[in-house]
Specification:
The chain is α/β, with parallel strands linked by helices and 469 residues long. It has helices spanning 24-37, 50-57, 61-73, 124-137, 152-166, 180-194, 208-217, 234-238, 261-274, 331-342, 347-358, 361-387, 412-421, 452-466, and strands at 77-78, 86-87, 110-111, 175-178, 199-204, 221-228, 231-232, 244-247, 277-281, 305-310, 322-325, 392-394, 401-405, 424-425, 442-446. Strand 8, helix 9 and strand 9 (277-281) form a beta-alpha-beta unit.
Length: 469
C-alpha cells in the first residue's frame, strides 16, 4: 500500500532550471513523469497541492494546475473531488515477477525458533509509563551527547541491581551501556586487541559465526573449545594459545549446562596464570526453574572478567540495551571504543529502563515470565513424553529452550524440512557447531515465543518424525 504522508501537503524535491531556455511547464511535466516512471513516486502516493508546489518552486499556481491536468490526461495522475492528487495505478515501473515467499512463522502451527522471548508479553504499559516518567523528570542537559559510558542514572541503578541479583562486583564508574550483546562483544574484543591479545577462544557448540566474525573485525583469530556436561573444558582451553575466552557460564548456549564450580575456579586460575581475560555472556540468567541460582562469574574475579548482559531476553531484543562490567585495567579502552563507535546509546531509553527497574516493575515482569516459561516447559515435556517418549531432553534447568537428542533419527536437514512440510519450525544443532556437522542429531527447541497450545500442537504434528517414522 502507498505511503500516507501526514500534514496538509507533503514536500517533493523537483529542480527547475530557469536558465535553460526550456519552458517551466515542460520542465515540471518532465520531472514529474520521470519521478513516477522511476518509482521515486509510488502508485497511490499523494502529491503536494498545486498551491504548495507552486510556492516551493516559485512559479504560478496556474502553471502547476495545467501541469497536473496534462499528466492526469496522460494517465500518470488521478484527482478526485475532495481528495489529493495521487499517482495513478499502472503509472509506475512494472513490478518484476517474484517467487512466492517462504512460509512465515505466522503460518506455522508452532515455530520452535530459539533465542526469542515471548514478544506478546512485553510490558508495554509499564514501558510507556517509565518512558513518560523519564521524559518528565530528565534535565535538559540529558539531551546532549553525554557520557559515552551511558546515563549515570542507569549505571547507578544497574550496579545496585547486578549486586543484588547476580552477586556481581558492580561499580557504576566501570559500567558501560551498550547496544546489546553484539556491540558489547565488539567493544571488548577491540579493546583486548589493543592490549596485544591475538587469539580468543569460544565454546563449541556455541556461537561460532558471531564470535569468529567479531574477532576477525577486531583483527583477532578465534579457536573453538569443546563443551561437555560440566561446561567448557578448561584443560582443552589451556592447550590453545588464547588469552581471552567468550563463554556462557550461567546457562551454556546452546547445551543449557551450568559451568561446574570446580571449573569456574580453574577458569579463573587459567586467566591469572596466562594473564588472560574472560568475557562472560550472562545469558538467560534471569530464568531458572529447578536449580539454585548461579551468580555471575564476574563476582569471583572482577579484575579478569568482562561481564555482558542485556534486556534482549528479559524484555525484548528490539530495545537494544545492554551493559558491560569492565575490569579496571580495560575500562578506559572500552570507553574510548564506545565513544568512537556511536558516542553513546540513546539516553531516553536508558532512563526509562532505570525507572522500570527502580519501580519494581522489572522484577514483577520477570516473576510473571518465569511462571509463563515454566508452564510452556511443562507442556513441552508432557507432549514429548506422549508423542516421542524415546527422545531424551536436556538443558531445561533454566532459559526457554531445550535440547532434544534423537537416536538413530534421519538426517538433520531432512528432519527439519519434513517438519516444515507439517507446518512446524524445527532447528538443528549443526548451526551452533564450528564443524557444522549434523551428527549426533540434536534439535534446539525454543519455547519462549510459543504458547502452550502451540507447543502441544507442534510436538503432536512432528511426533512421528522425532521417533524416526
Amino acid at each position: 500500500m502507498p505511503l500516507e504522508w501526514s500534514g496538509l501537503s507533503p514536500d517533493l524535491l523537483l529542480v527547475i532550471d530557469r536558465d535553460s531556455g526550456e519552458p517551466l511547464r515542460s520542465q515540471l511535466e518532465l520531472r514529474l513523469r520521470d519521478a513516477i516512471r522511476s518509482g521515486r513516486l509510488q502508485i497511490g502516493e499523494r502529491l503536494p497541492s498545486s498551491r504548495e508546489l507552486a510556492r516551493m518552486l516559485g512559479v504560478s499556481r496556474g502553471l502547476v494546475q495545467e501541469c497536473y491536468a496534462q499528466l492526469q490526461a496522460e494517465g500518470y495522475l488521478v484527482t478526485r473531488v475532495g481528495s489529493a492528487t495521487r499517482v495513478a495505478a499502472g503509472a509506475g515501473v512494472p513490478s518484476a515477477p517474484t517467487s512466492p515467499p517462504p512460509a512465515s512463522p505466522s503460518s506455522l502451527v508452532a515455530d520452535f525458533r530459539y533465542g526469542v522471548p515471548d514478544l506478546s508479553s512485553f510490558p508495554l504499559a509499564d514501558w510507556l509509563w517509565a518512558t513518560r516518567e523519564a521524559a518528565r523528570t530528565m534535565p535538559t542537559a540529558a539531551l546532549d551527547y553525554g557520557d559515552p559510558r551511558g546515563s549515570a542514572a542507569l549505571r547507578e541503578v544497574m550496579a545496585g541491581y547486578l549486586r543484588r541479583v547476580r552477586a556481581a562486583v558492580a561499580d557504576p564508574e566501570r559500567i558501560v551501556i551498550c547496544s546489546g550483546y553484539a556491540q558489547g562483544l565488539g567493544l571488548a574484543l577491540s579493546a583486548l586487541a589493543r592490549t596485544g591479545i591475538r587469539t580468543v577462544a569460544y565454546e563449541d557448540p556455541g556461537s561460532p559465526a558471531t564470535i569468529s566474525s567479531v574477532a576477525a573485525s577486531a583483527g583477532m583469530s578465534s579457536t573453538p573449545v569443546p563443551v561437555d556436561e560440566r561446561g567448557i573444558d578448561i584443560q582443552a582451553l589451556g592447550r590453545t594459545d588464547a588469552r581471552a575466552v567468550v563463554l556462557t557460564p550461567a546457562h551454556q548456549w546452546p547445551t543449557g549446562v551450568a559451568l561446574a564450580p570446580e571449573r569456574r575456579l580453574a577458569l579463573i586460575e587459567w586467566a591469572r596464570r596466562r594473564d588472560a581475560v574472560v568475557i562472560e555472556d550472562d545469558y538467560d540468567a534471569e530464568f531458572r526453574y529447578d536449580r539454585e541460582p548461579v551468580g555471575a562469574l564476574q563476582g569471583l574475579a572482577a579484575d579478569r572478567v568482562i561481564s555482558i548482559g542485556t534486556v534482549s531476553k528479559s524484555l525484548a531484543p528490539a530495545l537494544r540495551i545492554g551493559w558491560m562490567l569492565c575490569p579496571p585495567a580495560l575500562t578506559e579502552l572500552i570507553i574510548e571504543h564506545k565513544q568512537l563507535n556511536d558516542r553513546g546509546s540513546p539516553t531516553l531509553d536508558q532512563l526509562a529502563l532505570a525507572r522500570l527497574i527502580e519501580s519494581g516493575r522489572f522484577d514483577r515482569h520477570l516473576r510473571r515470565m518465569r511462571t509463563t516459561y515454566a508452564a510452556r516447559r511443562t507442556a513441552l515435556l508432557a507432549a514429548l513424553a506422549e508423542h516421542a517418549p524415546e527422545v531424551r531432553v536436556t538443558g531445561l534447568a533454566a532459559g526457554f529452550h531445550a535440547v532434544a537428542h534423537l537416536e538413530g533419527a534421519a538426517d538433520e536437514h531432512e528432519l527439519v524440512s519434513a517438519a516444515r512440510a507439517r507446518s512446524v519450525g524445527l532447528y538443528g544443532m549443526s548451526a551452533c557447531r564450528t564443524s557444522r556437522t549434523t551428527e549426533p542429531v540434536q534439535l534446539i527447541l525454543g519455547f519462549g515465543n510459543v504458547g502452550e497450545r502451540a507447543v502441544t500442537a507442534g510436538i503432536t504434528a512432528v511426533g512421528g518424525l522425532l521417533r524416526g517414522r
